[in-house]
Design the sequence.
């Protein structure tokens, strides 16, 4: 019998030509919501250390989720919609859309799994017709973002843990699927090692070296 297929897509620098968190900060600076002098340099520093795989997980998550603190979901919604339309959609290559569509049309169970928080990424998943999203969760209390995360961060080994939890909650088992994962980042090495078919996309230098050594397939979507 042919096993069903599970296909996992990272978002930032994989399906998106850019990083959602970094772009969000730049967008908020442009809109005058964040102070450029204070956030610009910190944003660049966090991005650099994330790409190198050296940033602390909680430090990374707290910095970006912290940009939401103090406002309600409804208060953020107009900016979130504008951000999607003007900063995110123009940075999704046609080749990325075609790749997602290919897996959807084949009947795969397609999941977007991203370190970026759900509030910023769920509209992107909807735009790509990806029904299932596993993301870092931003804490909300009394209808307002606290600026903190909740639960296991969907980063590095946490992506594998969160995937297993997601499947288990649906009565599914990872080992019952032919699994494929697409990612650009050394941070996703645990996920790529966990699946049967790892594929690198526009891989960073460290991941590209490992992929070449292990003869993993590589694609370029930009």
Sequence:
């Amino acid at each position: 019998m042919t096993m069903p297929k599970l296909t996992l897509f990272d978002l930032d620098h994989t399906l998106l030509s850019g990083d959602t968190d970094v772009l969000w900060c730049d967008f908020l600076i442009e809109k005058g919501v964040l102070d450029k002098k204070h956030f610009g340099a910190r944003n660049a520093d966090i991005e650099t250390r994330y790409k190198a795989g050296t940033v602390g997980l909680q430090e990374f998550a707290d910095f970006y989720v912290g940009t939401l603190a103090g406002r309600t979901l409804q208060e953020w919604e107009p900016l979130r919609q504008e951000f999607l339309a003007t900063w995110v959609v123009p940075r999704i290559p046609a080749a990325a859309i075609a790749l997602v569509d290919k897996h959807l049309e084949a009947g795969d169970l397609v999941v977007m799994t991203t370190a970026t928080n759900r509030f910023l990424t769920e509209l992107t998943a909807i735009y790509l017709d990806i029904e299932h999203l596993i993301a870092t969760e931003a804490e909300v209390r009394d209808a307002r973002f606290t600026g903190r995360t909740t639960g296991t961060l969907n980063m590095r080994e946490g992506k594998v843990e969160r995937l297993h939890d997601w499947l288990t909650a649906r009565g599914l088992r990872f080992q019952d699927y032919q699994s494929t994962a697409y990612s650009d980042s050394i941070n996703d090495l645990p996920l790529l090692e966990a699946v049967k078919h790892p594929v690198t996309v526009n891989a960073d230098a460290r991941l590209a070296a490992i992929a070449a050594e292990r003869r993993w397939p590589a694609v370029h979507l930009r």
